[in-house]
Amino acid sequence: QVQLVESGGALVQPGGSLRLSCAASGFVLDYYAVAWFRQAPGKEREGVSCISGRDGSSDGTTYYTISVRGRFTISRDNAKNTVDLQMNSLEPEDTAVYYCAAVSRYRGRGVGDYDYWGQGTQVTVSS
User: Fold this and answer.
1) How far apart are CA 60 and CA 90, in angstroms?
2) CA–CA separation, 71 vs 88, rounded Å?
3) 34 in helix, strand or coil?
4) Whether residue 47 has pLDDT greater than 80
5) Torsion of CA 124, 83, 26, 28, to 10 degrees
6) What average pLDDT does this structure show over 34-49?
7) Residue 37: which of 20, 12, 16 has the closest Cα?
8) Are 6 and 120 spatial neighbours (Cβ–Cβ below 8 Å)?
């Protein structure tokens, strides 16, 4: 059974850091493009970051939406079969439910470009 499970969400003060983890079961995540999305109350789900899969042409290529560049880092831990999102210098505007998603071959950065989704983890940035 293919499954993605996010973890690491929490309440953190502005300026703080969190590390989210997306764990896969039923498939090897290294061969899949993986993205992190987030959805704040009353807003559409938006792409935060993505990393290409091991498809030969773009192995390890990363992307960040402009609002998180320089603060967030996406990376793989193949030993754990996870993709992590290190989030530093967190701002109240980063408050949202964070979702990871995966697809066997990279199609794009939109919600509809990913086939497998986790259930989400809440990140709240507040003093």
Assistant:
1) 25
2) 5
3) strand
4) yes
5) 170
6) 97
7) 20
8) yes
Structure tokens at 96: 């949202």
Alpha-carbon distance of 98 to 38, in angstroms, equals: 4
- Hey, is 66 helix, strand or coil? helix
Residue 103: helix, strand or coil by DSSP? Answer: strand
Q: What are 85-113's pLDDT values in tens digits?
A: 999 999 999 999 999 999 998 889 999 99
Contacts of residue 12, Cβ cutoff 8 Å, sequence gap at least 6: 18, 90, 123, 124, 125
CA separation (Å) from 71 to 58, 114, 119, 120? Answer: 23, 24, 24, 20
Measure Cα distances from 85 to 9, 13, 27, 56 in Å. Answer: 11, 18, 20, 23
Sheet of 3-7, strand order: 3-7, 18-25, 82-87, 72-77
